[in-house]
Amino acid sequence: MLAACNFDLEFIYILSGWEGSAHDSKLLNDALTRRNGLKVPRGKSFLVDCGFANRRQFLAPFRGVRYHLQDFGGQGCHPENERELFNLRHASLRNVVERIFGIFKSRFAIFKSAPPFPFKTQAELVLACAGVHNFLRKECSSDEFPVSSDDEDSSDESLIEDDEDEIDTLQTQDEQRQYANQWRNGIAQQMWTDVINEDYIDWMYSFCYFSTVHNCLRLCFDYGLNMNYVVCYISI
Length: 236
Fold this sequence. Notes:
The chain folds into 2 domains: about 1-170, no CATH class; about 175-235. The termini are far apart. The protein has 5 helices and 4 strands. The protein is globular, with a radius of gyration of 25 Å. It is about 50% helix and about 5% strand. A two-stranded antiparallel ribbon has the order 1-2. Strand 1 (about 1-5) and strand 2 (about 10-15) form a beta hairpin. It is mainly alpha-helical. The protein has helices at about 25-35, 80-105, 120-140, 175-225, 225-235; strands at about 1-5, 10-15, 45, 60.
């Protein structure tokens, strides 16, 4: 199945009914070409994992770069370049997928094992339960389910190792792919520039603050000014 959700932990689209295993990109292409298929709102984009090709309106993380949230945990594990920063923020946002499926399986325990129904019934059961899930999310203010550690990041195990499917029936032109990659690179570079500027401003503020304190202390000794007044004035 292919599912899309929002940040309110609600399903906005589900494609259920493909038999066997299929590449993510093939499922996405099928969803986009159906009459009542997946629609991307104007000016919006979907976050997708490395199972999908990076393309217009579907933003995938950089390959071969740290992505798992746990990779950035602990002291000294902060992003070291623009691609790692992009992947960290991408993973933080896309983590909503792990949460919604954790809630879904906790709510409908039947999906923790193969249901004893015909395949068509199983596909319809997914859609029905997704509708019930959305209703409860909208109508029940206390609709919270714990997400087990087994569900958390379960789909990220092979994010970096997966092979990208370059067969894209909707956008096969190289310029389309190049545009999407340039778009992603631009976002990553802007994020990194903002972080560098923030760190520089923090450093300059600290430098100017201590320089000003040092100069004011010299004034205190040279001109007999009230030190408490000057320091309090600087603090304000």
